[in-house]
Design brief:
By secondary structure, the protein is an alpha+beta fold. It has five helices and twelve strands. It has one domain: Alpha-Beta Complex (paralog of FGE (formylglycine-generating enzyme)). The longest helix is centred in the N-terminal third of the chain and has 21 residues. The structure holds calcium ion. Calcium ion (CA) binds next to loops.
């Protein structure tokens, strides 16, 4: 037993120091540092970061509540680009054309269809990959990256220019994904550029603690998060929520995906 404990401690020390050499420790937290593995890519070049399970305070004000996510998940590093969308769907509905720009003019239903078709690609089926929209809780947890502040980079929107595209700095258009700094967990454009569909139906947060929330079973409006190039900096905060009908399309609205594995 003693030998086992010694071995376990040694392994932990090696793991911790190994991690610190390869990745900076995210500032803050009420959570353990997520498991920092190298970014992985899929057959159409989408990159993903493994986000560790954990707890966080979701929302703000009267809607603030404790959320526990019991399962790690692989979050898209970027918003889905027009090149990626076109490769899977064989069309590009975006208004602001650019292969590296985020796809926009896509409804929640379009985003769901993209996830289904991407999951059905032979290379993805062979790898056992299944794609889906993030839940709203996964999205906010990944956006916050261990922080409790207004934005993942701090409390002041004056620093938003380094991390995101909003009305104040966008020149009235979306920009290529990843052209601003990522958050502490390596995710780009969680604040601004294009608003992002989440999988949940919208409902008001009641304030109670929840585990692995997926939203109500039915509704009329789907959640979107993160603000966009067309909205002000306040809309891009970590906790700000919005919602629209799942058939709605506009030039400031797109999505990113989560990659799961066939059980
Ligand atoms: Ca975004």
């Amino acid at each position: 037993m003693h030998h086992f404990k010694t071995a376990a401690v040694c392994f932990a020390v090696v793991a911790i120091f190994g991690c610190e050499r390869s990745q900076p420790t995210p500032p803050v937290a009420n959570n353990p540092t997520p498991l920092e593995l190298p970014v992985s890519a899929d057959s159409i070049g989408m990159e993903f970061k493994l986000i560790a399970a954990g707890m966080f305070t979701m929302g703000e004000g009267d809607g603030a509540h404790e959320v526990t996510l019991t399962k790690p998940f692989k979050m898209g590093v970027h918003e889905v680009t027009q090149a990626q969308y076109d490769q899977v769907m064989k069309n590009n509905p975006s208004k602001f054309k650019g292969a590296g720009n985020p796809v926009e003019m896509v409804s929640w239903d379009d985003a769901e269809a993209f996830c289904r078709k991407l999951s059905e690609l032979p290379a993805e089926k062979a790898a056992g990959n299944v794609y889906r929209l993030p839940t709203e809780a996964e999205w906010e947890y990944a956006c916050r990256a261990g922080t409790n502040s207004e934005y993942s980079f701090g409390a002041h929107e004056s620093n938003l220019g380094e991390y995101g595209w909003c009305m104040e700095n966008s020149d009235e258009k979306p920009h290529p994904v990843g052209s601003k700094l990522p958050n502490a967990w390596g995710l780009h454009d969680m604040h601004g550029n294009i608003d992002e569909w989440c999988s949940d139906w919208f409902e008001d947060h009641t304030g109670g603690a929840v585990t692995d929330p997926t939203g109500p079973a039915s509704g009329s409006l789907r959640v979107l998060r993160g603000g966009s190039w067309k909205s002000n900096a306040g809309s891009a905060s970590s906790a700000n929520r919005d919602r629209l009908a799942p058939s709605f399309r506009d030039d400031w609205l797109g999505f990113r995906v989560v990659r799961g594995t066939v059980k």
